[in-house]
Amino acid sequence: MRPIPIVIAAFGTTAKARASYDLLDARIRERFRDHEIFWAWSSRMIKEKATDQQQDMISSPHEVLELLSRQHYSWAVVQSLHLLGGHEFIRLVDETKKSPLRTSIGLPLLSSPSDYQDLCVSLAPLINAHPDQAILLVGHGTDHPAWCAYPALQYFMRRHFGPRLFVGVIEECIPSSKEVIADLTAAGYKEVCIIPLLLVAGMHFYRDLTGKNKDSWMNLLAQADIKVEIIEQGIGTLPAIGDMFCRHIDDALTIIPEGNRQKEK
Length: 265
Description:
single chain, Rossmann fold, 4-stranded parallel β-sheet
């Protein structure tokens, strides 16, 4: 009997930022030792920029599921590594619907109220290490209806840590850099610690958070006379984040009827 295979569906990133994925991979393999673990990359841009040799190692979710079908699996868990259920997650779901085998989807990191609570607990060591600064979580942002996850996260964070917690985004949507910096200034904060609300510290970290361009968060805060400290890693390096994704994999496995979980040969 073969356990259900687990496909980890990540957006993709540069080689420099792969440390977060490597740590997550180790965490997942340790937790699901009896299951085969496969990785798939949903970013079309990553695939297009890869060399011919690299493309052989970069498979889309559909390609991985095709492979599993040829290996005579009838079910697979596909675990999203997205933070929110936005456009990319919906595309992933649509792609898995076209696969030749049945799939159970593991939900993004923030999908239920308990996920928000768990994220607060996961980030507590970082936040509590900076007691005298405002804490600013900066995520990617989206124009998908899932944008409301960011104000919701600020609500949960403030319930845990008080009014010094702020949430902003990189893209031009709510809560914007202009709005957040105005709120920081109105509250009288002169120092802020940025925690990237990104799984990996990739392109967005180096361009949109710490970049030299005038619109980077570092420069916009400096223009407002706010001193900035930044955590130079994605949250995917935190063991507790790996544990959250493992719980989502468990949930996805539980949905599969027990008889189907046992019949793979």
